[in-house]
Amino acid sequence: MKHIFNAKNFNLIAAAISLIVFVPLIMLVFSFMKSFEERQEKVGFIILGDIHVAGWNESHYKGIKAACENFGVKLLVRDKVKENSGQCPIAIKDLVQNGAGMIFLASYSYSIEVQNLVGDYPSTAFATNSAEVHARNMTAYFVRMYQARYLAGALAGMKTKSNVIGYVAAMSNTEVNRGINAFTLGVLRTNPNAKVVVMWTGSWQDEETEAAHAQRLIEEAGADVLTYHQDENATAQVAEKFGVDFIAYNEILSGYSEHYLTSVVCRWDLYYTDIIQRYLKGELNSVKNHWLGIDRGAVMLSDYSPSVTKEMISRVNSLKQELVNNKQIFSGEIYDNAGQLRCAKGEAISDDTLLENIGWLVRGVEVLE
Fold first, then answer.
1. Helix, strand, coil proportions of the chain in percent (round to 5)?
2. pLDDT at residue number 30
3. Hey, which residues does 165 pair with through a beta bridge?
4. Are 212 and 242 in contact (CB under 8 A)?
5. Helix axes 234-242, 207-219, angle to 10 degrees
6. β-strand 299-301 against 260-266: which pairing, if any?
7. Helix 145-159 and helix 310-324, axial crossing angle in degrees, nearest 10
8. What is the pLDDT of residue 26?
9. Pick from 25, 36, 207, 367: CA 20 to 30 A from residue 18's CA?
């Protein structure tokens, strides 16, 4: 009897089995790779306000839009997403369903609100501009805005005549406190007799409250220079109305008088280019925090008002060079405004602390209730 399982037949059977087993597997792998590539080509962006309103919202949108165009990546935007309202989780689910492989959470409280949700999407990379919450697939991204705040404070210290500088601020959290503290340290660097008076609005954008606080800082506190940490520029408008010097935030204004001294601004296009490139290379979650500073050109002061003298500009530039040369603003002996030592002589506050745990204000800051 002739054996049917000769070598030739065995090879044919083996080949058939290979086709049955491995072809679907190969197709599955290619399908997964194609899906991954498609997801890589879509980036989601969630932000609190209207992306077409100047300030925090528009500056971030323009920055990430430019970066995505640079890499040929499609940008999926969800704006006007209120914090702590349940809207952010809905926006995340929507972006994932629409193929976003990476999602930027561009408002402070989003990461806290969705910290238990991001783990449900392990193949999605998240980036948050709050460093107080982390996950295996969520890293923090921000700029060292406090460095430009420090320089702005130095300028304010030289410009004030009343030795009172007003600061309209959203709320007491690490990001805002860090900026106020750096600004105040800059003020005291050029004018040890000055003080910074802060008023809280309790919101990132509330133009009516911001305007009312700015007016109180001028009329009650005697401030002759104002600045702010808010998404929009109501404080600048009040300062202009009252003929008071001011330093803007996150946008370069137009149509103002010489009282508009300068703006604290960020190259968000540069920053988003850096972070998206890391994502596309698979390096996004390789570190806990991504933090670019003045040495990379990520933060700066805009052009100065004609009322800012050459001597003032020279002094600010000298302080800027110190920062470029890696001088630490939060170093040496620093006390808070309750008299507690926060940094000892010869020491420096670590980046992790600056990003995650600044629940205090430096000596030289007063809060007006």
1. 45, 20, 35
2. 45
3. 196, 225
4. no
5. 40
6. antiparallel
7. 150
8. 47
9. 36
Contact by Cβ (8 Å): 64, 43: yes
349 half-sphere exposure, CB direction, 13 A CA radius: 19
**pTM given for the model:** 0.86
Cα–Cα distance measured from residue 81 to residue 205, given in angstroms and rounded to the nearest whole number: 13
Task: Note the pLDDT of residue 34.
Answer: 42
Angle, vertex CA 128, rays to CA 123 and CA 134, nearest 5: 70
Contact yes or no for 121/92 (Cβ under 8 A):
yes
AA identity, residue 164: V
250 vs 229: CA distance, rounded Å:
9
Token digits for 245? 């010097």
Write the DSSP symbol of residue 294.
Answer: G
pLDDT value of position 16: 55
Tell me which fold the domain 40-144+270-292 belongs to: Rossmann fold (3.40.50)
Q: How far is Cα 365 from Cα 367, in angstroms, rounded to an integer?
A: 7
Q: Cα dihedral angle (363, 295, 103, 112), rounded to 10 degrees?
A: -20
Rg, Å, the chain Cα set:
26
Which of 186, 227, 160 is CA-nearest to residue 316? 186
Distance CA 360, CA 158 (A): 25
Six token digits for residue 127: 């980036």
Q: Which fold has domain 146-265+300-367?
A: Rossmann fold (3.40.50)
pLDDT at 289: 82
Structure tokens at 356: 């995650």
Q: Report residue 250 as tokens.
A: 């996150």
Torsion of Cα atoms, 337 then 338 then 344 then 347, to 10°:
-50
Regions of the chain short of the pLDDT cut 50: 1-2, 5, 23, 25-39
3-state secondary structure of 270: helix
Furthest C-alpha separation in the chain: 113
Candidates 255, 266, 260, 231; CA nearest to 243 is: 260
Domain ranges for the chain: 40-144+270-292, 146-265+300-367
The residue with tokens 């430009």 is 148
Q: What are the tokens at 186?
A: 């800059």
Could you report the per-residue pLDDT of 83-96, keeping only the tens digit for each? 999 999 999 999 99
pLDDT value of position 237:
98
Q: Do domains 40-144+270-292 and 146-265+300-367 have the same CATH topology?
A: yes
